[in-house]
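Duplicate of #3305? Posting structure anyway:
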């Protein structure tokens, strides 16, 4: 399992990147998601996806009350698709932050996008 956590201090928003690489990662992933409080039904579905060894997929999960977002990536079959999926989910995170905080100014949205990209680049 790959795991990364960082915070956008200006908006006090935590972002978690979790990559479930193997079936045996299920317990560790679920443990992290319980702490973030992303919802019991969603967690059951995620466990099933990991244990079924789902590939080339991901989910964006969030807890708006505590200002937390999760990018959960399942095993990828190739690097190109993996990068595409990560950036697809990254966009969901950006949109969720902007919507929740009422940010409609493109410069602030671009700041969020750049900051998240800077943090995710090392895992690519």
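Output from current build:
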């Amino acid at each position: 399992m790959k795991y990364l956590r960082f915070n956008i201090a200006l908006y006090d928003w935590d972002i978690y990147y979790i990559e479930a690489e193997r079936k045996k990662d299920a317990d560790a992933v679920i443990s992290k998601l319980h702490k973030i409080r992303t919802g019991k039904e969603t967690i059951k579905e995620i466990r099933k996806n990991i244990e079924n060894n789902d590939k080339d997929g991901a989910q964006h999960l969030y807890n708006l009350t505590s200002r937390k977002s999760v990018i959960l990536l399942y095993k990828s079959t190739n690097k190109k698709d993996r990068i595409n999926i990560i950036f697809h989910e990254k966009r969901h995170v950006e949109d969720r932050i902007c919507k929740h905080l009422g940010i409609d100014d493109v410069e602030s949205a671009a700041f969020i996008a750049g900051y998240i990209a800077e943090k995710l680049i090392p895992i690519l």
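Confirmed duplicate; merging threads. Residues 2-123 form one domain. The chain has a mean pLDDT of 95.
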